[in-house]
């Protein structure tokens, strides 16, 4: 549910030219991969990803194909399919950003845009995801956060707005995005509301340039799904947050599971060096993103506090760098939402 920064991704029309992918892959997952590949090739051939009947139809088909629970492990797919998935995630990010800019522009025409958020076709999904994230957070933290940061907020910052309006009425929200136009559009939406405009700011910054003095002010940091479009980029952002967030503060990371990983990048628990991973929640309904909640370690001997830690190449294993033992429990039922999957990870330092 996060946002694409087009100049950061380097996507232009040439990157959307049709690509051929070998479909004879993936054993029992072959039919699903073949179907997603066909949709990818159709999406790649579009002249534009701006909202239109064709764009809406193809992305709806893609989401419906990826939504059902699937045992597929995208890390086990062949190289050609991995390449296709990487390009598809970027196309999804571009289309999502254009969709949100379109509706942010429409909402800005109202005297009070916040009264009309439901014109956005996926507004209810944001309401459900925000409630899910709020419930997960409150399960693991007693104090109400005073300051929250959302990294990758985009032109339609619905998560921040919904949390601020319905769940955290006294909390201040700082939204970060690389795109100044997106921040201007977002600010126009909350400007007419005196309460929200007083508690919400928008910063045009690369999170990698936001230092300790700023980041350690936040009780909770949300990391949008499309901040860091591949594993290497995502881990770099997480490492930066681990170095600069306050000990004991909370990181909420959006991820993906099963076939939904064709839509968004996956964040694995072992990617969060410097954090104690508390829970990984995989929705099975129309809420697409998984949610990972982690707490910045209080242990000053952890690798995140070492100057040597930042010089490791991107191929290192964060899990091996932690002197910890991880236990994983997967439950088919939890009180947040019947039928979803929640993974509780207890990290016990030795």
UniProtKB/TrEMBL annotation:
EC number, as in UniProt: 2.5.1.43
Superkingdom: Eukaryota
Keywords: S-adenosyl-L-methionine, Transferase
Bilayer-crossing regions: none
One of the GO biological process terms: nicotianamine biosynthetic process
Role according to the record: Synthesizes nicotianamine, a polyamine which serves as a sensor for the physiological iron status within the plant, and/or might be involved in the transport of iron.
Catalytic activity from the UniProt record: 3 S-adenosyl-L-methionine = nicotianamine + 3 S-methyl-5'-thioadenosine + 3 H(+)
MF annotations from Gene Ontology: nicotianamine synthase activity
Protein name (Swiss-Prot/TrEMBL): Nicotianamine synthase
Provenance organism: Carnegiea gigantea
């Amino acid at each position: 549910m996060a946002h694409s920064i087009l100049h950061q991704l380097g996507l232009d029309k040439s990157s959307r030219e049709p690509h051929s992918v070998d479909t004879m892959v993936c054993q029992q997952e072959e039919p699903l991969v073949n179907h997603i590949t066909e949709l990818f090739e159709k999406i790649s051939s579009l002249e534009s990803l701006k909202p239109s009947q064709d764009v809406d139809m193809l992305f709806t088909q893609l989401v419906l194909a990826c939504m059902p629970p699937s045992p597929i492990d995208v890390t086990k797919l062949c190289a050609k399919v991995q390449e296709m998935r990487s390009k598809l995630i970027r196309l999804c990010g571009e289309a999502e950003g254009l969709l949100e800019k379109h509706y942010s522009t429409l909402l800005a025409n109202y005297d009070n845009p916040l009264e009309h958020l439901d014109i956005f076709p996926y507004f209810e999904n944001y309401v459900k995801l925000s409630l899910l994230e709020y419930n997960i957070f409150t399960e693991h933290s007693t104090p109400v956060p005073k300051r929250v940061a959302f990294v990758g907020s985009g032109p339609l910052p619905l998560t921040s707005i919904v949390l601020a309006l319905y769940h955290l009425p006294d909390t201040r929200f700082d939204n970060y995005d690389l795109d100044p136009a997106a921040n201007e559009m977002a600010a126009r939406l909350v400007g007419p509301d005196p309460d929200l405009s007083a508690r919400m700011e928008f910063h045009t910054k690369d999170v990698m340039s936001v230092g300790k003095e700023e980041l350690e002010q936040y009780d909770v940091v949300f990391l949008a799904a499309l901040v860091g479009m591949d594993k290497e980029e995502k881990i770099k952002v997480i490492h930066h947050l681990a170095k600069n967030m306050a000990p004991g503060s909370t990181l909420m990371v959006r991820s993906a599971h099963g076939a939904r990983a064709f839509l968004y990048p996956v964040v694995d628990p072992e990617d969060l060096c410097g954090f104690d991973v508390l829970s990984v929640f995989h929705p099975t309904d129309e809420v697409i993103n998984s949610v990972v909640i982690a707490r910045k370690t209080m242990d000053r001997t952890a690798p995140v506090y070492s100057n040597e830690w930042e010089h490791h190449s991107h191929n290192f294993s964060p899990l091996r760098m932690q002197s910890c033992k991880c236990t994983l429990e997967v439950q088919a039922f939890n009180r947040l939402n019947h039928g979803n999957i929640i993974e509780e990870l207890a990290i016990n330092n030795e």
